[in-house]
Amino acid sequence: MFFHIELERNIQLHPRHFGPRLKEKLKQKLMRDVEGTCSGRHGFVVAITHFDDFGKGLIREGTGFVTFPVRYRCVIFRPFKNEVLEAVVTLVNKMGFFAEAGPVQIFVSNHLIPDDMEFQPGDMPNYTTSDKSVKIQKDSEVRLKIIGTRVDATEIFCIGTIKDDFLGVINDPGAAS
Amino acid sequence: MSAEEEENAAELKIGEEFLKAKCLMNCEVARVLDHRFEIIQQTSDDPMNNISQVFEKSMQYVKRFSRYQNPDAVNQVREILSRYRLAEFELCVLGNLCPETVEEAIAMVPSIKSKERAITDEMIETMLQDLANIKKFE
């Protein structure tokens, strides 16, 4: 789920940036430092939308660098256990398939794919039901439920399932063509 | 047990911080990111180099899965869903997935039927009907 939240961060600025454009420099540095990063607590920071408050700077002894506390609002993406969301399939193999929902990768193991769907190898590997009515392949859109998350320093990785009511393929690009 | 392991969106256990925060539906995120992307394009000579992978992927995702294109429709969806005193998180899951039946809505957002709330199946039915109407007349 995407959230819009307020966060605070201390930004260190070199003295050469002090001057009339100090705030601009702070904004630029904050955007460079924060956007595109990922933490276990807040998930992926997609974009900063507002700068709310620039606190008083504190000079660091010995270096001349100044630390400014900055409060800002940003759009973040954070997956939760048991959240249901839509995702795009990126890779299919005999172990299961990978899907992407925004910045996050979700793996759905073949144990968590309904039993009536069989793996079909080939140049377009896919999972298909015995009556061939439903097919999961690269670029399919699926609705899945996240059942576990693993948090790493720079990435969040999820395990999902489509073996439940109202989950599974919502749009198959191959079916249309 | 750590806070991480206790998380459960089905019971609306997403942590105090996220419960209070404003959630965004995919269509709302699309609007925010579009606006941001325009600014980047105007101010930078090489826009593709100035956006993070996270930004790019999020933008592609929300564009693909936006249910409502029209900003007015998005506001109406929010308005209708907020009548039922749903949590932000529940509101956005419903707005993103647009379930068609009451059973589907409950499967997507199990917390909607929690005991403290008096939301009946009929109320959910009306709510889904209202949402379907917005979609139809968008």
From TrEMBL, chain A:
It is found in: Nucleus. DNA-dependent RNA polymerase which catalyzes the transcription of DNA into RNA using the four ribonucleoside triphosphates as substrates. Residues 8-64 form the RNA polymerase Rpb7-like N-terminal domain. PANTHER family: DNA-DIRECTED RNA POLYMERASE II SUBUNIT RPB7 (PTHR12709:SF4), DNA-DIRECTED RNA POLYMERASE II, III (PTHR12709). One of its GO terms (cellular component) is RNA polymerase II, core complex. CDD domains: RNAP_II_Rpb7_N, S1_RNAPII_Rpb7. Coiled coil: none annotated. Belongs to the eukaryotic RPB7/RPC8 RNA polymerase subunit family. Keywords: DNA-directed RNA polymerase, Nucleus, Transcription. Pfam families: S1 (PF00575), SHS2_Rpb7-N (PF03876). It comes from Acorus gramineus (Dwarf sweet flag). This is DNA-directed RNA polymerase subunit. It comes from the Eukaryota. One of its GO terms (biological process) is positive regulation of translational initiation. SUPFAM superfamilies: N-terminal, heterodimerisation domain of RBP7 (RpoE) (SSF88798), Nucleic acid-binding proteins (SSF50249). Residues 79-156 form the S1 motif domain. One of its GO terms (molecular function) is translation initiation factor binding.
UniProtKB/TrEMBL annotation, chain B:
Keywords: Nucleus. The keyword Repeat does not apply. It holds the Pfam family RNA_pol_Rpb4. InterPro entries: HRDC-like_sf (IPR010997), RNA_pol_Rpb4/RPC9_core (IPR006590), Rpb4-like (IPR045222), Rpb4/RPC9 (IPR005574), Rpb4/RPC9_sf (IPR038324). It is found in: Nucleus. GO terms for molecular function: nucleotide binding. Its main location: nucleus. One of its GO terms (biological process) is DNA-templated transcription initiation. One of its GO terms (cellular component) is RNA polymerase complex. Residues 16-138 form the RNA polymerase Rpb4/RPC9 core domain. Belongs to the eukaryotic RPB4 RNA polymerase subunit family. PANTHER family: DNA-DIRECTED RNA POLYMERASE II. This is RNA polymerase Rpb4/RPC9 core domain-containing protein.
